[in-house]
Here is the input.
Amino acid sequence: MMSSRSSVTIDQILDKWRWQAATSPSNVERFKGSAFERLCIAYLTHDPLQRTQYDAPMAYGAWARQRGLAESDLGIDLVAKVRNGEGWCAIQCKFLAEGRPLRKAALDSFLAASGTRDFTRRLFIDTTGEPWSAPAEAMACRQAVPVTRVGLDQLRQSPIDWAQYVNHDKIVLAEPKRPRPHQDEAISFQKESQAHRSPILKNGRDFSGRA
Here is the structure.
């Protein structure tokens, strides 16, 4: 379904969830994390760019249960089939405060848990809106299993109407707009990098600085 863009932005939705977590008398951190994971599933399933890369994203527990594995995620939140390729992508969804660079410690358990032959790719989705710290980037670049980052900018650029999703549990896509030149470049580079199994991408660019 297509529509004009809602006035409610992804930033407003995330800010509301953060405010609810900070002001609630009960511990709603788990609810906040689960809500963001469901948002990430919707994003990977319906965003026009991401759905060319991934198929059937699901909670790690469901994926593990199908294979008779322990359901404890150990740092993996979601799993998706790699589209037009072999294997599975391990996914971590980090709902963090905006403006705080991601530290190496935030990656440790995810990289350890996903560094198995079960996974041929990794995806890290976060909401910091900032570059990763130098140690985090350096560690990610050394990984044999490729790591891709989806950051806050990409969530903002998605044509998904997040207000319709949050308020009505419905996926509505905004009328398509022609990408700006730098977005065309990022999309082309991401597709090329996936084809050549680039070791790590950051918002459509790799950490080595390649444009």
User: Anything to note?
Assistant: Confidence is low (pLDDT under 50) at residues 204-211. Strands lie at 2-3, 54-59, 78-82, 88-94, 119-126, 147-150, 173-174, 200-202, 205-206.
